[in-house]
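Reopening this one. Same input as before:
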Amino acid sequence: MDFNFCVFCWRAVANSRMRNGRTLYFCNIHKATGNSKSQHERDKRRIISMFEKKKIVLNKSEAKYRYYSQLSSNLLKVTETPTEATVINKYPFPHSGIVKQAQSLYKAISWAYPITFNKLKLALPLQVTNNVELVERIIKSLMNSKDMGIPPITPHHLRTEKDASVWYPLLIQMLARHEAYEKLQEQKMKPGVSKDKELRGIIKALISEYQKKGKRLTQREISRQVGRSEQRVSVLMKEMKLNV
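Same output, byte for byte:
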């Protein structure tokens, strides 16, 4: 798999010459080190929890490359897939003429990706001169407060590819990943039973993953990763009869 995109979201990974360690798989928001480590862990838990709800099975014994490939490709199952979004018979894509291509894209995402469309509907550039300009303006429109101070990175093939049969499906994939990521972020903890149910699932999945790796996990570390107080984590663990 070519990791044009971060395993956890729609953003691009670092350019090849800049890659080292886990930046091969993650964007600047989701690197598993430094200030981004907490965001990395929170979104990983959200993704795994969502996969469990949708009965998407991951082979955790796979090598790192294949495991991350599973996570990345299955993220698209959270929303309409790129193939479904193009709906060739409904929104035929013109292979020439950037304005017509932008209009076709506009129609496709208005149907398939409502969250993304709402972000782009006032900013989606229909008057552009080339596909690179179209992509760059879309990326800037999708950025949010988490991206503050971080220069946008355009995925390599979207920056260099001129063939519409290549860049258009890749752009649709980026938008599908954005929609999926935003859906995951909408899974907010609700008051009462719903809140506790989701939090229990995240804690259980976290402990299970560490145990499979033969690692111990403290309640303090769990509370840090799930963004809840150590006291609340302790209460829920006792209710689930979990030990670490």
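So the earlier flakiness isn't reproducible anymore. For the record, The two ends are 36 Å apart (CA to CA).
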